[in-house]
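To illustrate the input format used throughout this study, we show a single complete record. The first block contains the structure-token representation of the backbone; no residue identities are included at this stage. The design step must infer an amino acid for every position from geometry alone.
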């Protein structure tokens, strides 16, 4: 089976490149993108936060 060579983006590295000084924590990055990460380390909340980040920066 051939690998389709998808393009990947990182919702951790991309915001650090976009905003000077970087924001190391997922909850801080998510808040900057308009997502209130109340349930940090809850799989669905973390996935929603990453989606909010992706929509904002990519």
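Output of the design step:
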């Amino acid at each position: 089976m051939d690998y389709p060579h998808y393009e990947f983006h990182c919702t951790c590295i991309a915001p650090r490149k976009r905003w000077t000084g970087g924001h190391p924590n997922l909850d801080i990055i998510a808040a900057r993108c308009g997502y209130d990460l109340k349930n940090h380390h809850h799989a669905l909340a973390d996935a929603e936060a990453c989606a909010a980040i992706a929509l904002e920066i990519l």
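Structural context for interpreting the output: DSSP finds three helices and no strands in the chain. The longest helix spans residues 43-57.
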